[in-house]
Design goal:
Layout: E1 18-22, E2 25-28, E3 32-34, E4 38-45, E5 56-64, E6 67-72, H1 79-84, E7 95-102, E8 108-123, E9 136-142, E10 146-150
Antiparallel strand pairs: 1-2, 1-7, 3-6, 4-5, 6-9, 7-8, 8-9, 8-10
Length: 151
């Protein structure tokens, strides 16, 4: 019916409108974010007096994967290289990284927060004389935990 607001819970969220905060740097624009995953290792155990000839599976240690961020390269924009160059033996500035999936008005609908994040790898763009694509760099971030919040 015309004029009525549609129930937003019946449609999945689009994934193309998002922003990223890295420490004090807010609303950074990225082309792609991937690796927002976590898993729990499986511990297989069988008691010595068990009559079953199979193991019981129990949850073990949680693991989080690295998050990969891709963005276009801009003139004199070396923020990530500067952050990466601060790495020395077991010391690096660790910051929270907040990834926000936004609705059509720019309000966050889902928020992923990475605790104690730091750059583990930066990949510069490939260069091709006959290419016509935008130069894109990749930043891989290690972190110590992932939380998800819904707005």
């Amino acid at each position: 019916m015309a004029g009525e607001a549609q129930d937003q819970s019946i449609w999945p969220l689009p994934k193309f409108h998002f922003s990223v905060d890295i420490g004090d740097q807010k609303n950074l624009a990225f082309q792609e974010v991937s690796g927002l995953d976590t898993e729990t290792q499986i511990i297989e155990y069988r008691a010595g007096n068990s009559k079953d000839f199979s193991t019981v599976k129990m949850p073990g240690i949680k693991k989080v994967g690295n998050v990969t961020l891709k963005k276009g390269i801009f003139v004199k924009d070396n923020k990530f290289w500067d952050w990466y160059s601060q790495i020395s033996m077991n010391t690096i500035k660790r910051v929270p990284v907040v990834i926000k999936l936004l609705d059509e008005k720019g309000n966050p609908t889902m928020v992923w927060t990475l605790q104690n994040a730091w750059p583990t790898k930066i990949t510069g763009t490939d260069l091709k004389a006959d290419g016509n694509e935008v130069a894109v760099e990749t930043l891989e971030i290690a972190h110590e935990g992932l939380t998800i919040a819904n707005s």
